[in-house]
């Protein structure tokens, strides 16, 4: 009987080795399957994104074509200021709306002041009028914007560093005379 028991133990050991080998093969194939599924998902998403982008491009092309057709019959709209955009030099007939909102607010504070009795304002006073507080960062930001407006002819900067509404008596550089 010992020999039959020994044969069964050998077969059990061989079966155990085969099972372990198959488990390792299944684990390896599971990794391969997972990588293939990920690749398939990426390709499906890429195709869907491409279809969406092409559809959006076609819609934009159609919209641009329609807009160009409308522009041929309609006047061009006024440019919309972009936050942080450049300040164009002031010239006769140029509306304040070409300036970004922050610059318009600074001009508004200075232009709302009655001309008689109240002189120019310091950057700190403008900052308070705008409701921004008195922190140095806010004051310096307003001072920088007010200086830019003064350099471009939208405001007058006094020698004391104070600002007032109005145009400087001398035309802005590059304005030239019409005579």
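Q: What amino acid sequence fits the structure above?
A:
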């Amino acid at each position: 009987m010992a020999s039959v028991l020994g044969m069964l133990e050998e077969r059990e050991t061989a079966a155990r080795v085969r099972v372990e080998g198959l488990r390792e093969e299944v684990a390896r194939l599971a990794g391969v399957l997972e990588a293939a599924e990920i690749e398939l998902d990426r390709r499906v998403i890429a195709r869907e994104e491409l279809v969406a982008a092409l559809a959006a491009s076609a819609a934009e092309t159609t919209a641009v074509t329609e807009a160009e057709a409308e522009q041929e019959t309609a006047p061009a709209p006024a440019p919309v200021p972009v936050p942080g955009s450049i300040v164009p030099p002031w010239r006769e007939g140029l509306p304040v709306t070409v300036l970004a909102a922050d610059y318009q607010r600074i001009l508004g504070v200075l232009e709302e002041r009655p001309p008689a009795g109240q002189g120019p304002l310091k950057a700190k006073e403008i900052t308070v009028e705008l409701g921004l507080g008195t922190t140095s960062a806010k004051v310096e930001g307003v001072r920088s914007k007010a200086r830019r407006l003064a350099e471009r002819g939208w405001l007058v900067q006094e020698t004391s560093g104070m600002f007032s509404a109005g145009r400087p008596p001398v035309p802005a550089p590059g304005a030239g005379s019409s005579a």
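Q: And what stands out in the fold?
A: Strands lie at 155-157, 163-165.
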